[in-house]
């Protein structure tokens, strides 16, 4: 598992991807077998949505609270913490202890997602040559969608054999194995040589605070992540249930629909990451993704109104290509703009914004789906969320153009 001396290779990239993807495994797995979970536990759609709300709420708090903690801890310790929390969450879900225990497991899964973006961004900044970084962000951020793909296919298949509790236990075993491999690979990759800073360039009180433009960028990215995050998890958590209930898909085929979104999301994140690595700015790309996501929400609504499976697959493709690709744009913008010494704090703020949206989306969607308006009202709300993303993206594009005009004047 050793990397070539001084040159990070694909095994490092793989463990970065896995570190980002291991925390969401439980949530995506439960979503893929949501019909079974709801029936076995005797809970409502809103109560099922609360599982995701607790998960992402814990992640939002963790990202906001532990940013400075992340900056002060060594990489190996943070990776070990990520895999340990993910393993524990899956182990608790494997115990047939009822709804409350599943809520606790979901909270731990959320905490497992408090650290991966910060530590993996820092690993990129300190161990990977500059020319590779932005392209690698697209690949490592696709770990979330790889997790969605694996869980959406694996949980229904394993649930048919050993039940959904057994599927969670299998996930825990995989998390332990992957954690051991991740730590071994990280140990083999050295830090890049530090570039000496001439005396007198750093103020006596330490590095200068971030300029206002950078602070604004971080807050703007967090805001966009929050709004987009509402739509992302409102869709992800209820996609399989929608396919099963409204379009008469089987449980396995409903899982395949969610897996397809994940697979397309993997390709999208890699592709958008490559565009960012070629110099494309974040604002126009965020606007494009918001427009595509808005179109996807409209097609989800049309699929239910017409009962068309073809329209559902088109909506899945649009969702995977657009809303699921936003994270890589946000993370690439952070890595471009923030020094590695503050990477955990800045990443934590942006990720906390996303997780705040992840927290609200499933709870609102579950409440709407369980109401008289059903999924039609739910998809209408998702479309409204993405319309707000379009407005935010347009504002950022126009602001960037004004700044560029002033700079060239």
From TrEMBL:
Residue stretches making up the Major facilitator superfamily (MFS) profile domain: 12-401
Gene3D superfamilies, per the entry: MFS general substrate transporter like domains
Record SUPFAM superfamilies: MFS general substrate transporter
Assigned keywords, A-Z: Membrane, Transmembrane, Transmembrane helix
Membrane topology: Multi-pass membrane protein
One Pfam family cited in the UniProt record for this chain: MFS_1
Record protein name field: MFS family permease
Organism name: Paeniglutamicibacter sulfureus
């Amino acid at each position: 598992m050793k990397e070539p001396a001084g040159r990070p290779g694909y095994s490092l990239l793989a463990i970065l991807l896995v570190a980002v993807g291991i925390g969401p495994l439980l949530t995506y797995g439960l979503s893929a077998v949501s019909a079974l979970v709801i029936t076995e536990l005797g809970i409502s759609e809103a109560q099922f949505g609360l599982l995701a709300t607790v998960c992402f709420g814990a992640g939002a708090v963790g990202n906001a609270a532990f940013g400075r903690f992340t900056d002060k801890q060594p990489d190996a310790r943070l990776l070990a913490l990520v895999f340990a929390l993910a393993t524990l969450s899956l182990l608790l879900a494997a115990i047939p202890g009822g709804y409350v225990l599943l809520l606790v497991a979901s909270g731990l899964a959320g905490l497992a997602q408090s650290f991966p973006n910060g530590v993996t961004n820092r690993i990129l900044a300190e161990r990977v040559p500059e020319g590779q970084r932005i392209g690698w962000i697209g690949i490592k951020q696709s770990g979330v969608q790889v997790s969605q793909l694996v869980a959406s296919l694996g949980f229904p298949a394993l649930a048919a054999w050993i039940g959904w509790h057994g599927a969670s236990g299998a996930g825990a075993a995989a998390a332990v194995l992957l954690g051991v491999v991740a730590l071994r690979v990280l140990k083999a990759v050295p830090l890049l040589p530090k570039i000496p800073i001439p005396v007198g360039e750093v103020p006596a009180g330490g590095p200068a605070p971030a300029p206002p433009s950078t602070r604004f960028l971080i807050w703007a990215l967090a805001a966009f992540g929050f709004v987009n995050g509402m739509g992302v998890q409102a869709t992800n958590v209820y996609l399989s249930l929608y396919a099963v209930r409204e379009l008469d898909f089987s449980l396995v085929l409903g899982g395949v629909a969610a897996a397809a979104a994940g697979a397309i999301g993997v390709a999208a994140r890699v592709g958008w990451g490559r565009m960012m690595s070629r110099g494309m700015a974040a604002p126009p790309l965020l606007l494009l993704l918001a427009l595509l996501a808005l179109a996807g929400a409209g097609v989800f609504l049309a699929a239910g109104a017409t009962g068309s499976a073809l329209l559902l697959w088109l909506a899945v493709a649009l969702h995977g290509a657009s809303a699921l690709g936003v994270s890589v744009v946000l993370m690439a913008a952070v890595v471009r703009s923030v020094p590695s010494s503050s990477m955990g704090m800045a990443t934590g703020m942006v990720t906390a914004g996303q997780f705040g949206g992840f927290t609200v989306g499933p709870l609102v969607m579950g409440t709407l789906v369980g109401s008289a308006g059903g999924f039609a009202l739910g998809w209408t709300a998702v479309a409204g969320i993405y319309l707000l993303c379009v407005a935010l993206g347009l504002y950022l594009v126009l602001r960037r153009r004004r700044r560029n005009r002033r700079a060239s004047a």
